[in-house]
Amino acid sequence: MDLSSSLSIATSGLHAIDYQLSVVSQNVANQSVSGYVSESATVVSRTPGGLRAGVVAGSTVLNVNKALQASLYNQNAKVAESDALSNSLSAITSIQGSTDTDTSKSTGSSNSLPDSLGNIQSTLISLAATPLESSAQAAVMSAAKTLTSNIHALSDTYTMQRQTAQDNIVSNIATLNTQLTQIGSLSTQIMSLKASGTDTADLENQRLQAMNGLSSNLSVTFSESSNGDMVVRTEDGTELPTRPDQMGKPYNAVKLPTSTWPLSATNTTLSASTVYSSDTSTANPDLFISLDGTGDIKSHLTGGTLGANITLRDTTYPKMQAQLDSFSYTLINRFSNAGVSLFTNGSTSTPSSNPTGTNPNGLVGLSSALSVNSEYTADPSKLSSGGDTSTTKGDISAITNVLDKTFGTSSADTTDSAKASLAAPSSGLGPDGSISLGFSGSQGILALATSLTSDQASVASEASNGFTYASSVQTTLQTAVSSVSGVNVNNEMAKVVALQNAYTANAKVISTVQTMFSALLNAIN
């Protein structure tokens, strides 16, 4: 080996060390960046024609276990979904209050429907003992108004939380678009650089970070082609374009990245009668999520924050509203059937039983209009006058009938009678008739209130428990991914020490060669 070759080899070593130090520096600088994957420098021997010619920097490698990373992305979606569900539904549990049925505790210890209804029963029992006592009559009216206020609060909360979910969907779509098109923009750069043999590690790392964020917004899968392109699909396999050319359009049809393409959702104000339906005859296009303006894709978007808000808007809160509307109708119906029309739908104590009609022509939205009958509000003594059509003061027959029948639990009190159907409407509910009650409508009124409260509380509890479990699994996966892909600063510092030693050795070779060249020149001269 001649001196020139030695100098060339040592110089290539210094260049390789410089490259390796830049990779180490990149890792250390990004060690706290969420989603960043550690990089490893690749150095290969250069042997042109079988001759020793030092080393050359290869392609930088990302330390990724793709199967493990895919599992983490999937878990990110589950955590984000259960978190969004739990946060939204906590508003319902705070309104509903306790569902504790321990009879040793005082009646009315919370604002739950069973407690509020139990207060009416208790005040009626007291009124039956002192029917002419104005304070006892006022207590019944106060309890009735409290019940309607609590029902209104629940109905208003359903509407508010459902509207929040709709607003979040619009926001989620904008974020999702930005993440998708950022991936598309990065993929374009990666493909171009790969084709020219240029290192693409840093761009791929940026794309991984975009993928990590996207995985919390929606349940998706990613696949990479040999040319560096990335294809994103929903959980059911529906492809989500990241660039216009993936849909057969010119690449420059949309300036990337953007928050307005490929998906779009409409800002709209919801009401109890607003319903999403796959049936085009009852469909509300304001609730659609369009893919590149070609049609509704909502049913393919599941998991993550977006999937949670879609579920809340189109399934969870519409069912809760239908349950409360059914209960409110039953409350009016059973009191009226007992001869004391204490409650109305805002206009009548004999509301329509049409499950898909909007109040006052049906059950939809009835709970928000539920009110105490103005006749009883104006003259509470009517409670002790024998019923709706009687004027006999001190007559407790109607009160007794309410206690026996309205609060009764026998089949005759909860199903059919000669006067009316007393079972709570339990199927064909909601604006499009697609909702079922989820529990028996043939129960006593107190049991019906408890079933409603318990059913809705269980939905919230399931979301909360789901978040706890999903977070635990996510932590385990994050630890496993970090062991492969995370930046270990101690290891990086150890690399720096080794590279310093290598740099010193290569510099020593260059210094020695320089000395030998000088000696050779002096000898010649």
Overview of the structural elements:
- The protein has twelve helices and eleven strands.
- The strands form five sheets. The protein has a three-stranded antiparallel beta sheet.
- The radius of gyration is 35 Å and the shape is elongated.
Give the secondary structure arrangement, pairings included:
Elements (H helix, E strand, L loop, with lengths): L2 H27 L9 E2 L2 E3 L9 E3 L3 E2 L3 H31 L16 H17 L4 H62 L5 H17 L2 E5 L5 E5 L4 E2 L22 E3 L23 E3 L12 H34 L5 E2 L21 H4 L1 E2 L1 H5 L18 H10 L4 H4 L30 H41 L3 H36 L1
Antiparallel strand pairs: 1-4, 2-3, 5-6, 6-7, 8-9, 10-11
Family: Belongs to the flagella basal body rod proteins family.
GO molecular function, one term: structural molecule activity
Keywords: Bacterial flagellum, Cell projection, Cilium, Flagellum, Secreted
Tell me about the largest β-sheet.
3 strands, antiparallel
Helix and strand run: HEEEEHHHHEEEEEHEHEHHHHH
What strand line-up does the widest sheet have? Answer: 5-6-7
Oligomer: single chain
Count all strands and give the number: 11
SS class: mainly alpha
Cα(first) to Cα(last) distance is 24 Å
| Poorly predicted sequence stretches spanning 5 or more consecutive residues | 98-109
Shape: elongated
- Bin the strand percentage: 5-15%
Mean pLDDT: 91
Helicity, as a percent range: 40-55%
Rg from Cα: 35 Å
Distinct helical segment count: 12
